[in-house]
From TrEMBL:
Residue ranges of the TM segments: none
N-acetyltransferase domain span: 24-195
This protein's encoding gene: acuA
UniProt GO MF annotations: acetoin dehydrogenase (NAD+) activity; acyltransferase activity, transferring groups other than amino-acyl groups
SUPFAM superfamilies from the UniProt entry: Acyl-CoA N-acyltransferases (Nat)
InterPro entries linked to this entry: AcuA (IPR024699), Acyl_CoA_acyltransferase (IPR016181), GNAT_dom (IPR000182)
Name of the protein described by the UniProt record: Acetoin utilization protein AcuA
GO BP, sorted A to Z: acetoin catabolic process
Amino acid sequence: MSPVEHIKRFHRKFIYTKKSPLYVEGPVLPEQLANYDFHEGLSAFRPAPQQKQALISIAELPEGRIIIAREDNLVVGYVTFLYPDPLERWSQGHMEDLLELGAIEVCSAYRGLGLAKSLLEVSFLDESMEDYIVISTEYYWHWDLEGTGLSVWDYKEVMKKVMGSVGMEYYATDDPEITCHPANMLMARIGKNVPQSSIEKFHDLRFMNRHLF
């Protein structure tokens, strides 16, 4: 494994609205998350109270990073970073310098304010993120097509723009979960301090099936 020290530097951005300012900040500590309420609209993956507990658990991990958007004491959006699931191919390289953007969610009542881009912007203000390869596996069945009214292809373009705002790029892969539908995609950002050996290992992970022939 590459020797990576999990340094987390806190950053904050203010977004001013007609109602009240929103704070986009993090990485936040588990005890901070515990003191916040979660908007009931943050339910894309599980009910908001359960999602709050899941984020607290991620924040407790050495590598775990949670960036939130909040109005006063109410969390209205978040993005998570952590090591890939042990059952996914992206964990098979045992890379300490590869993180997965596990989820990004903004409740519908606060969309249109650019919060998704702001969450990512604040995430990468931390210079220590340059020590990592950050991946995002985008599956169309996780997208809020009904709530946005977008087609799967339009939503894909939106995701590419949002992720691209912080330098994440599209990468080809033979991962069956991604290749099973043309809307799915792998995006990644390779930090400027990532060693070549890790970059090569990442490329090997992208095309693991080629070794079967």
